[in-house]
Design brief:
The complex is a heterodimer. By secondary structure, chain A is mostly helical. Chain A is about 70% helix and about 0% strand. Chain A contains 18 helices and 2 strands. In chain A, helix 7 packs across helix 11 and helix 12 crosses helix 13. Chain B has 2 domains: about 50 residues; about 250 residues, MetI-like (MetI-like fold), CATH 1.10.3720. In chain B, helix 14 runs antiparallel to helix 15. Chain B is flat and about 85 Å long. The N terminus of chain B is likely disordered. The chains are: A mainly alpha, B mainly alpha. Chains A and B meet through helix 1, helix 7, helix 8, helix 9 and helix 13 of A and helix 1, helix 3, helix 4, helix 5 and helix 9 of B.
Chain lengths: ~325, ~325
């Protein structure tokens, strides 16, 4: 395979360009502000102890503290005690840059809360999408009723509409209902996934009718059939759809940016990162990149673990 | 006998009839929620946007006036919106062909390899998975004029032969390298580059899926017919076989490209870039409609945007129905 070297060369060049921002993001999240400014320290930085200036300022000794500390430093005047206290604060406030960056990421902004919000929102969206789409898909695939073709035609038409494109009228409707700045606003527009209906219908078409007839013979209602017979058969398709849906909504920035204004309690991870960026000055590159790393990591790790399923799920839309 | 014969027959007929009624009712109950949500969330907003695009409505105002087609006239006469269309189309026309081409190229290269296929595939797919906003911020650091990795790398080329053969390097080394995001000559191209960076892995995966369905016998047949070079085989076999994939990849890339927003909002929260050179449609909808509360003009942009996207998808469906087999 020696004549393949030029292919590898091209692909490796591509790899360098693709990886560069990831490399930089993770590397900056390890480094001290000085190392970032001067561009030194390799990938991990030198991890020399650094002093968190803001922590030292916070612990600046007051008059009362100096008096209180006097017995610990016998024979020193006030100036001496003060210097000793500041030195103590500096030792307490010094840490490795990597620790500093990641602690800052979680303490400067309620990052855990943002991550929780991200999980709540993506999970609710996916669950509601399934609850709405699965029965409809079953009816469209397996039940005969007047109007079925019309409903399916409507589904096909709605596939044309990207939800982001109609964000403005949706925003107005939600604002009129007084729902902006609520979890509902983050979830509602995504509750209907016509793509999910379409996909599950295509899948259900391949399920043999005998299975359903047998269930009916056993006296199962149509609802029971949907959840107890069809759902288990649809697990592979559902898993692919789950990945598709979760990746899209964990990463979504546009819609949360519109309906959540100011209320930090509702921020999703991308919004939190955005706020961090707006508020920080130059010395905050490290913590900001730590935040970015924390937000990007869950999906990347999940992807690495279940690559094939992910690629299937994401490219699902290509298999029509 | 004839009587006895008739009874079960009628009973069956009656039973299927009640069964049909039951089935019909169940069907409507099962599709009901989906139908209601489709109308309320997808169709009604289009109608609302269509109506509001002929008004001067603002949230918080009690009433509004019908202004006829004035919003649309503004859209097609004012220079701001001319810039909006230019930026959007420049982005789409740059990103779609390059990301589709790179996706196809990468897929063909990877498909022809024996080893490391999975590794390349995984790495090229990473940007598709990553939160674009986070990656936009990472790119912003990379592009930082003084401490960014890109200009630092370029500076390393100073004093070498590159300076003599490449005027861009000579200029950069003599003065300073571009400020990228702050320069209206580069801004839209940087955004396009990030769009390509993010999207081509997706296209690659779709093409790889498409390539598995190309029959090996076809290559043999083509060789028999005198297609000796790799290029001939690609032109005669691979490319036609990938027709349906290409139609799909191009459409989805177009729709995604039209919706570019995250990178632009992250780099320039106000105003859409230096000299509005990256003032794309999604950003315009956000700025006019949401931030400035000019719902009429925002709705007009929404309608034009929808027209673009639907037109594209209809072309795709038409091509697919014609079965693109060249």
């Amino acid at each position: 395979m020696t004549h393949d070297w030029w292919k590898h060369l091209l692909l490796i060049l591509g790899v360098i360009v693709v990886i560069a921002p990831f490399y930089m993001m993770v590397s900056y999240s390890f480094k001290s502000p000085g190392e970032i400014d001067r561009g030194e320290g390799g990938f991990f930085g030198r991890q020399e102890m650094m002093v968190d200036e803001r922590c030292v300022v916070r612990r600046d000794p007051s008059r009362a503290e100096i008096t209180a500390a006097a017995p610990r430093f016998p024979g020193q005047n006030d100036r001496g005690i003060r210097d000793a206290l500041v030195a103590e604060a500096e030792t307490d406030c010094s840490m490795r840059p990597v620790v500093f960056n990641y602690t800052m990421a979680f303490t400067e902004a309620p990052l855990l809360r943002y991550l929780m919000n991200g999980i709540i929102v993506t999970a609710s969206i996916f669950l509601i999408q399934v609850v709405v789409a699965l029965p409809a898909a079953y009816a469209l695939a397996k039940l005969k009723f007047w109007g079925r073709d019309a409903v399916f035609a409507l589904v096909l038409f709605c596939l044309l509409i990207p939800v982001h494109a109609i964000a403005l009228p949706l925003y107005i409707l939600l604002a009129k209902l007084g729902l902006t700045n609520t979890y509902a606003a983050l979830v509602v527009p995504w509750t209907i996934s016509v793509f999910g209906i379409f996909l599950m219908r295509q899948f259900f078409m391949t399920v043999p009718d005998d299975l359903i007839d047998a269930a009916r013979m056993d006296g199962m209602s149509e609802f029971a059939i949907v959840w107890r017979v069809m759902l288990p058969t649809a697990i592979p398709a559902l898993l692919a759809f789950a990945i598709f849906s979760i990746v899209a909504h964990w990463n979504d920035y546009f819609w949360p940016r519109i309906v959540v204004t100011g209320n930090r309690d509702l921020f999703t991870p991308p919004l939190g990162l955005r706020e961090f960026k707006g508020g920080g000055d130059g010395s905050f590159f490290g913590p900001m990149m730590a935040t970015a790393t924390v937000i990007v990591t869950p999906l990347i790790v999940a992807f690495m673990l279940a690559q094939r399923r992910f690629i299937e799920g994401i490219t699902l839309s290509g298999m029509k | 006998m004839s009587l006895a014969d008739g009874v079960p027959h009628e009973a069956v007929a009656a039973k299927t009839k009640t069964h049909n009624v039951k089935e019909r009712r169940a069907a409507w109950i099962l599709t009901g929620p989906a139908l209601i949500l489709m109308v309320a969330i997808l169709l009604a907003p289009i109608l609302v946007a269509g109506l509001l695009s002929f008004t001067n409505y603002s949230l918080g105002n009690s009433g509004f006036d019908w202004v006829g087609t004035r919003n649309y006239e503004k859209l097609f006469t004012r220079s701001t919106y001319a810039k909006m269309f230019t930026a959007t189309l420049t982005y789409v026309v740059t990103v779609v062909p390059i990301s589709v081409g790179l996706g196809l190229g990468a897929a063909l290269l990877i498909n022809s390899l024996g080893r490391f296929r999975e590794a390349y595939k995984t790495i090229y797919f990473l940007p598709v998975m990553a939160t674009l906003l986070a990656m936009a911020i990472a790119w912003e650091f990379m592009l930082h004029p003084s401490i960014g990795m890109i200009n630092r790398t370029l500076e390393m080329g100073c004093g070498t032969f590159l300076e003599r053969i490449w005027p861009f390097m000579a200029n950069g080394c003599a003065g300073h390298f571009p400020v990228w995001l702050g320069d209206k000559r580069y801004a839209i191209w940087v955004i396009s580059f990030i769009g390509i960076w993010q999207g081509f892995g997706f296209n690659m995966v779709l093409y790889l899926a498409g390539l598995t369905s190309v029959h090996r016998e076809l290559y043999h047949a083509a060789e028999m017919d005198g297609a000796k070079s790799a290029w001939e085989r690609f032109r005669l076999v691979t490319w036609p076989a990938l027709g349906p994939t290409t139609v799909f990849v191009v459409t989805i890339s177009c729709i995604r490209a039209f919706q570019v927003f995250d990178t632009i909002e992250a780099f320039w929260p106000q105003g859409g870039g230096p000299n509005k050179s990256t003032y794309v449609m999604m950003f315009a909808i956000f700025e006019k409609g949401v931030q400035q509360n000019l719902i009429g003009i925002g709705s007009a942009i929404t309608m034009v945007f929808l027209a673009f996207v639907m037109f594209l998808t209809l072309i795709q469906r038409w091509l697919v129905e014609r079965k693109v087999h060249y």
